[in-house]
Amino acid sequence: MPGLLLGDEFPNFEADTTIGRIKFHDFLGSSWGVLFSHPKDFTPVCTTELACACKVSEEFTKRGVKMIALSVDSVEDHHSWSKDVMAFNSASEGSLPFPIIADDKRLLSVQLGMLDPDERDKDGMPLTARCVFVIGPDKRLKLSILYPATTGRNFDELLRVIDSLQLTAQKKVATPVDWKPGQKVMVIPSLSEAEAAALFPNGVTTKEVPSGKKYLRYTQP
After folding, report:
1. Which of 16, 25, 152, 203 could form a disulfide with 12 if both were Cys (CB 3.0 to 4.6 A apart)?
2. How far apart are the first and last CA of the chain?
3. For position 1, what pLDDT does the model report?
4. What's the predicted TM-score (pTM) here?
5. CA angle, 40 as apex, 24 and 96 as ends, to 5°?
6. Which residues lie below 8 Å from residue 8, measured CB to CB, with a gap of 6+?
7. Any idea what the Cα angle at residue 171 is, between residues 27 and 59, rounded to 5°?
8. What is the radius of gyration, based on Cα positions, of the chain?
9. Which of the residues are catalytic?
10. How far from chain centre, in Å, is Cα 173?
C-alpha cells in the first residue's frame, strides 16, 4: 500500500458522501472504523458486497466499528444505486446503514493507492480495487486488505479480523490460524513464563515440539 503502512495515521480527508460532507476523523470520533472501496456503482459484484454489508452492519455496530464505503461515482449515483442494493436484499424501503464516499475525481483512490491498473471503465479510466482499511480509535491503520476488482470480499472474515485486532489491542496475545472468538489464543513470545502466569489467571499450556523450544503457549483470554 504505497505511502500508507500499518501504524500510520490515516489521512484526515474531507469528502462528499451520501450523508453530506465529512471530515474523516470527525466521522470516526472515538470509534473503530472500516473503509471499503468499490470499483463502480451499478456493477454486479459491488452490489452483492454492499447488500451483504447492510445485512451484517449490526455486527460491526456491536463491535463499535463505523462503516463507510467509497466508489468512483457521484453522490447522486450512489443514492440511486443504493435503491438497487436494498432491492437486492428484498427491502423495498429504507437506506443504507452507512455512507458512501463520492470519489468521482479519484483523488482519494490515488492518495490511498486504491486504483486497479488492470480494470478500467468504458472511458478507459482505472477503477478502484476492493480495498479494506481498518482504522483504530487512535486514527492509525490497523489492517489493510487489497482484492482485485474481480474478487468479492468475505465480510465474515472482516468481522473475524476485527475481533482479533480488538482483542490483541487489549491483551498481550496473538490469534492463531482460523481463530474465532471464544477459542484459545497464543501468548506472545516476548512474555516470560512468570509474566504470562501473572497475566493469564486461566493458565497457560505449552505444546511440546521436537526443538524443545517453549514458544507454542496457549491461554483462554
Report:
1. 25
2. 32
3. 41
4. 0.91
5. 55
6. 140, 141
7. 45
8. 20
9. 46, 138
10. 21
CA dist 98 → 78, 107, 132, 145, 180 (Å): 12, 21, 15, 20, 26
Classify residue 5 as exposed, middle or buried by CB count within 10 Å of its CB (0-12, 13-18, 19+). exposed
Find cell 503457549 and name the residue: 217
Please give the average per-residue pLDDT across 3-19, as a whole number: 94
Contact call for residues 119 and 126 (beta carbons, < 8 A): yes
Q: Give me the half-sphere count of Cα atoms (radius 13 Å) on the Cβ side of residue 48.
A: 10
Q: Do residues 89 and 55 make contact, with C-beta atoms less than 8 angstroms apart? A: yes
pLDDT digits (tens, 9 = 90+) for 97-148: 999 999 988 889 888 888 766 666 666 666 677 899 999 999 999 999 988 8
Dig out the grid coordinates for 120 from the structure. 478500467
- The answer to whether 37 and 128 are in contact (CB under 8 A) is yes
Residue showing cell 487512535: 138
> Around Cβ 56, how many Cβ atoms within 10 Å?
15
In whole angstroms, what separates CA 88 from the centre of its chain?
23
204: enclosing H helix or E strand: strand 204-206
The amino acid present at 156, given as its one-letter code, is D
